[in-house]
Amino acid sequence: MVEVQACKLSLPRPFLSSSSPITSLLFEPRSTSLALMHSDSSFSLYPSLSPFSPPSSQSQAPTPTPTPTLVPPPSSSASFLLLQNPRPNSGCHNPRVLFVVAAPHRAGAAVLFRFYVLQKSQLFTKAEVLCSQRDLEFDRKSGVLFNVNHGISIKLAGSINVFAMSSVSNSKIWVFAVKMAGDDGDGGVVLKLMKCAVIDCCVPVFSISVSGELLILGEENGVRVFQLRPLVKGRIRKEQRESKSLNFPNGYDRKTAGVEANMEVACNGDLEGRIDLNRVSLKRRSVRFRQDSSEWSACYVAFKGKKVEHLKSMMPSFIPIKAVSIQAFAAKTFLILDSDGEVHLLGISIHHPGSEITCHMKLFANTLKVQKLAVLRDTSTRGRTIWISDGFYSVHMMTVSETDASANDDENDSEEKLTQISVTQAIFTSEMIQDIVPLAANAILILGQVKFICICNFLKLVAWLFLFSGHLCSRPD
Q1: What are the CA-CA distances from residue 100 to residues 110, 162, 178 (Å)?
Q2: How far, in Å, CA of 311 to CA of 321, rounded?
Q3: Are 182 and 189 in contact (CB under 8 A)?
Q4: How do residues 413-451 score in pLDDT, each as one tens digit?
């Protein structure tokens, strides 16, 4: 029998924040940072939470709560990402946590990006951003202005040094690279932002995931997989440029009719301009291609079938099934939730960067019509934890052991080795479940529809249950 204890968890309210209810959650596991989105589209950022500490007794000093940061409205979408090896020459190798928020600007005529970096003082502060491309402009008061229409809906997805933005109205997906550039002299940081790729969408995209080396788009009846590295690093391009007279100190004047220059786009690595051996200045250009292009070794894999459907096979079924959520399960294994409430296991195999992608899709057998899916990536254990909810009053914790969903060269030999799938815990709530976020292998954050968030932490004998109001409590005296 599992014992449950409950107590209130009071979080400080950000300065000048409203008391708007919470509508969604974002959690960054490395720094244990939490972002709460409110109904007025503002965010409350809480760094380095310690939700698993038991409540202190009256004789003990209360556990200090982190200082929150308010991200004022409006906000359309947001994502956490990590800045890996931000300054290699400084000896600092620990990733920095970055929070990116997108919002409409100038009545929707542009998209506004705001960047918040988690400082060593455990406080999120706004960052200065360097950007040199024509459609990107930094404004100190507001942020980075991206000169494209906002439209009715945009979505952000982030990973390490990279984030992507999809736009329904523009039918496009943009891939951006970001890195640390230095300090601003006042204790803040300076970032560099580069637009690396533009994907022109020819079919609707319902979800997007950026994870490690992969960009995955949720489409009708399946998903499309791209290798992220070629999109970020770019490709070799050749340009013919006419050169001017070159006057040398010895009086020798050499003129050439033209110079053929090799251009290498390196968005995520060297963001500086380059000059080739012929002293020709090379400008960085983002790559652009269609969603169904075969140029970037993309792969489309359909639901409910073992045969991988490549880019030319895009015939929708009579009643299309949408891929509404994509969750990273391992480095090259993902869980896909479709609009029918089914969960699919996607295995991806890439022999070397730039080579053809091989995919395999398997349907999870379950009787629950899933509405919410959350996955915890924990490489320290052989078993992986999956949390599913029907969107009503229950959450189920599943453990998957000995998973090998990679695809072999021969499609007929592709197989999954699922040693065990077991439901180990079930949680029942008094309110309808609006959102779930995994915190650990035995803990999950649950957002109720009306007025509560609970953190359920299952131990061998004891389970701690922390409750606090969706209308954030003020700091206790």
Answers
A1: 16, 11, 11
A2: 18
A3: yes
A4: 334 454 456 667 788 888 888 999 888 777 788 888 765
